[in-house]
Amino acid sequence: MRSADVLDGVQRAVEEAERNYMGLVIWQTEPPFSVGANLRKTQPGERGRKPSAFSRLVRSVRREAESLALKAARQIGVADQLMAGRLAEVEQMLGQFQETTQALKYSTVPTVAAVDGLALGGGCDFIMHCDRAVASLESYIGLVEVGVGLLPAGGGCKEFAMRAAAEAKGGDLGHFIQGYFRTVAMAEVGRSAQHARELGYLRPTDIIVPNRYELLHVAKTQIRALHEAGYRAPLPEKAIPVAGRNTIATIEAYIVNMRAGGHISEHDYLIGSKVATVLCGGDLDGGSLVDEAWFLALERRHFMELIATGKTQARIEHMLKTGKPLRN
Amino acid sequence: MSKQLQDAYIVAATRTPVGKAPRGMLRNVRPDDMLAHVVKSVMAQCPSVERDAVEDVIIGCAMPEAEQGLNVARIGLLLAGLPDRVPGMTINRFCSSGVQAVALAADRIRLGEADVMIAGGTESMSMVPMSGNKPSFNPAIFEKDENVAIAYGMGITAERVATQWKVSREAQDLFAAESHRRAVHAIDTGEFRDEITPYGVTDRVPDLEGQEVKKRQREAAVDEGPRRDTSPEALAKLKPVFAVKGTVTAGNSSQTSDGAGAVLLMSEAAVKRYGVEPIGRFVSYAVAGVPPEIMGIGPIKAIPKALAVAGLREQDIDWYELNEAFAAQALAVIAELGLDRERVNPLGGAIALGHPLGATGAIRTATLMHGLRRRKKKYGMVTMCVGTGMGAAGIFEAF
After folding, report:
1. How far is CA B70 from the centre of its chain?
2. ipTM confidence score
3. What pTM does this model have?
4. Which of the two ends of chain B, N or C, has the fewest CB atoms closer than 10 A to its terminal CB?
5. Per-residue pLDDT reduced to its tens digit, A154-183
């Protein structure tokens, strides 16, 4: 299934739920969590093992489908002669992806993600936009796009920027942004649902269930509860304070030292500075007020700038060929 | 040569013991309390001096914010019981702040504008971390490559110095082990007894059963940093902290610490008026700028300047208190200037004794003055490298 079909499917599901149902639960009958695309199922024998966070990341990225980044990569083909034209397609798909996550967020009926197993990249973006996530303890959630030289552009960075602004409550926004920067820039994957909450992928209002068989029941109960509580779609936030240019510089100071110490490459530095730029709302004075569309446009712009670089393309190509990350 | 009108005499110099940060013996002691403690102590050492005779109190602090913000000098002196009419100011030149404060206080006397001054430094790295609670960098730093080093952490600069001056990992670890050995020996032989004013720490812990606050008293009297169990072999096992293929480790870098120091300075007229016996004389002070990416070499530029101002030669200096920010930079300074290792940090340095940033200059001034006197030596120097690329050096004469 093409990812455009996946996105169409989710958007149609939202519309259908709004017309005829109390709410929408997104779930997969078996782990890993999916957003509707044809993920290959977990290989026999894999379940129950405790792979390292890194091997989970590698295997999951190899499994590919849900990562928007890799969808995009596959679509353009690396070093494709038709790169320019294909990039336009990627950008168009990116826009559609953002529309889909926004549709989940602003649906007139409650949306709940029932998460089990791996939920990486685009899957994580979807979870972050649902009204609620119900995650089994053994969920491995993360925005891993940086691992292939990109940045989350399905609204994940935007959600983190908004969460930071809400958490700062008018105080030091930079402090909260720096925490989310580490999560995104290091492509951190939660080692459990509890850890995903500590990393900020799951909110305090999201629910962690110890047993995956409870998932659907609890998710549906949440839909009913939200419905019974008189659910109204959230009002779009039009005055989100940004951390701004000083916080970008402060994060750059951190990654400059990482680069000088040989911990990261020049390209890692570029990716990091772009992640910082998106999370901080761009080259603005701190405290400037923007809307969600502002952040989404930043995500698209910097995603596209990264995917146009030879080093990111080499990373994607290497990951698709070998299943292993490339340090370049 | 100096163009001073009169000499500035050191009549008292003291310090707290230095605690490890952030989990050491002084972790809950406020820097303004530590400052008040050492200010009280230098005044107590000269009981004939009227408290309101102090013209000004100048205190160094490298991260003057939060618990050590709000002009910690003024707060500390008032908490020390000095009268309202005694003013105070906090100054900052990072790691040289303490000795910079001594130099500024001396200058007021040397100019003839003050007779009694207090200088010092205080720093709680347990309460206010390196770089402060909210570091914020100017975006302009990253617009030009030549400015990027402003953002370099000190460890990266030490790596640069190690590479440029070819300081090996082995040499750094040996130097670090020797720092600990000397410090432990100095503690065991009571070398620091004259300079330390022990601090009575009150711990407040909840008594959950009795529903009361339990107060426990303990005395901090000995530096906490020196390790008896370290060795070059043990240090060699540590991994580099700042650079993947680097040589600078936690073991061959200075320790983060808590502490304070104070120095009471007087003009000759005041010395006579109060009948006190000076322990030494301020001789000269110099600062110098160097590239930020190799800030550790700062003393290479500052030391000759301070010597030139004093009209002294390198071999005239009996005792160097060279702050060991990193073994790499200390060794580079020693090699470049051809210093005699035996005269450099004879009681150990910051790798063992700790480095409460803005307080170190005042603390080591106390070490130097008392050490020179005990050994009946004449000239000594307190010198250090300073973040963003500077060096500072102050020369003192002991009586």
Report:
1. 21
2. 0.91
3. 0.90
4. N
5. 999 999 999 999 999 989 999 999 999 999
